[in-house]
Amino acid sequence: MNVQKLIAANIDVVTGGLNVTGDTAGFEKQSITDLIPGIIQVILGLLGIITLCLAIYAGFLYLTSQGNKETVEKAKKILIYTALGMVIIMASYAISSFLLGSLDNLFTNPEITRPAPAPEPEIDMSEEDLFP
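-> structure tokens emitted (132 positions)
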């Protein structure tokens, strides 16, 4: 028996089973271009929550420092780095949204991905032009 045919048959069985299970569970089929932005949003959302928690922690340290200069400096450092991290997270969100939107537009608009062919130049190949 041909191994390639056996592998192809098994892939069809597995894919068919996954499609039936997904349809039964109520999930829609998604392409990879729909899935990746969702994953990026979840990751950046979690990072935003972490930076918010760090900002609250820095504020708590600052308020409970009771004049201790080391604790005040530690709280200021945490707050500065948290603000910098938030700027980086927002910039990465903007960049990823722009890039993924552009890629999605390329894949969904076939007119944009395939430029019109260049017109053929008209060349007169008569003997008079070739041999003066």
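The helical segments are 3-25, 32-63, 69-108, 110-113, 127-130.
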